[in-house]
Please model this.
Amino acid sequence: MNQQDNPEPLDLVWGAAAIAKVIGHTTRATFHMLEAGELPARQIGRRWVASRKALENFFAEATG
Model:
Protein backbone atom coordinates (compact mmCIF):
# COMPACT_ATOMS: atom_id res chain seq x y z
CA MET A 1 0.00 0.00 0.00
CA ASN A 2 1.41 3.39 -0.91
CA GLN A 3 0.79 6.76 0.69
CA GLN A 4 -1.77 7.72 -1.97
CA ASP A 5 -4.10 4.99 -0.69
CA ASN A 6 -3.92 6.33 2.87
CA PRO A 7 -2.55 9.88 2.87
CA GLU A 8 -3.14 10.46 6.59
CA PRO A 9 -2.14 7.63 8.94
CA LEU A 10 -4.14 7.18 12.12
CA ASP A 11 -2.70 8.99 15.09
CA LEU A 12 -4.19 6.96 17.90
CA VAL A 13 -3.91 7.83 21.58
CA TRP A 14 -4.02 4.76 23.82
CA GLY A 15 -5.09 4.86 27.46
CA ALA A 16 -6.97 7.30 29.64
CA ALA A 17 -3.76 8.92 30.94
CA ALA A 18 -2.51 9.68 27.42
CA ILE A 19 -5.92 10.97 26.35
CA ALA A 20 -5.93 13.18 29.46
CA LYS A 21 -2.63 14.76 28.40
CA VAL A 22 -4.01 15.51 24.93
CA ILE A 23 -7.15 17.22 26.26
CA GLY A 24 -5.50 18.89 29.26
CA HIS A 25 -7.56 17.24 31.99
CA THR A 26 -6.67 15.00 34.89
CA THR A 27 -6.68 11.26 34.32
CA ARG A 28 -9.54 10.86 36.77
CA ALA A 29 -11.71 13.50 35.05
CA THR A 30 -10.87 12.05 31.66
CA PHE A 31 -11.76 8.53 32.77
CA HIS A 32 -15.12 9.82 34.03
CA MET A 33 -15.74 11.55 30.67
CA LEU A 34 -14.79 8.35 28.81
CA GLU A 35 -17.08 6.18 30.95
CA ALA A 36 -19.94 8.65 30.45
CA GLY A 37 -19.49 8.61 26.68
CA GLU A 38 -18.64 12.31 26.56
CA LEU A 39 -15.49 11.90 24.44
CA PRO A 40 -15.03 10.52 20.92
CA ALA A 41 -13.26 7.36 22.04
CA ARG A 42 -13.94 3.68 22.38
CA GLN A 43 -12.85 0.91 24.64
CA ILE A 44 -10.79 -1.90 23.14
CA GLY A 45 -10.56 -4.65 25.69
CA ARG A 46 -9.80 -2.79 28.91
CA ARG A 47 -8.02 0.17 27.29
CA TRP A 48 -9.45 3.35 25.87
CA VAL A 49 -8.36 4.56 22.44
CA ALA A 50 -9.11 7.76 20.57
CA SER A 51 -7.98 9.46 17.42
CA ARG A 52 -5.96 12.58 18.19
CA LYS A 53 -7.67 14.33 15.27
CA ALA A 54 -11.14 13.35 16.55
CA LEU A 55 -10.30 14.75 19.99
CA GLU A 56 -8.99 18.01 18.48
CA ASN A 57 -12.09 18.35 16.27
CA PHE A 58 -14.40 17.59 19.19
CA PHE A 59 -12.95 20.37 21.32
CA ALA A 60 -12.66 22.80 18.40
CA GLU A 61 -16.39 22.38 17.71
CA ALA A 62 -17.26 22.65 21.40
CA THR A 63 -15.42 25.95 21.80
CA GLY A 64 -16.12 27.59 18.53
Remarks:
- The chain has one domain: 12-63.
